[in-house]
Write a structure and sequence with these properties.
Layout (H helix, E strand, L loop, with lengths): L2 H26 L6 H23 L33 H10 L10
Helix pairs in contact: 1-2
């Protein structure tokens, strides 16, 4: 896992935790619920994922890309295809084919 992806995951998980902690602090009176503290909490909660998106989008800009040599793929020589050998049809195989073809072909009475 790259560091930008790790920061993205950390920010995505830390933002809701911070929001819950801020709300709990306001409810229990540990942190005063003023517009300033609300703004700080909103900036941290919204800014975390935005900062993570920025980290992921700028991650590959400074990384050197290794150039590979082109690969030549040659077609294999093909031999003349051999004709398929027909299989002998036994009476049991003929009966099975007739059973499987009952929808497609009209009934042949012999």
């Amino acid at each position: 896992m790259t560091s930008a992806r790790a920061l993205s995951l950390l920010a995505a998980l830390a933002a809701p935790v911070f929001l819950v902690a801020a709300a709990a602090g306001w409810l229990y009176g540990v942190w005063p619920a003023t517009p300033v503290t609300f703004t700080i909490a909103a900036l941290v909660v919204c800014g975390g994922p935005i900062l993570a998106i920025y980290h992921v989008s700028t991650e590959d800009q400074h990384e050197r890309v290794e150039e590979l040599e082109p690969t030549v793929v040659l077609a294999a020589p093909t031999a003349a295809p051999t004709p398929p050998v027909p299989l002998p049809v036994t009476p049991k195989a003929a009966a099975a084919r007739a059973l499987m073809d009952w929808r497609d072909k009209p009934l042949q009475r012999t």
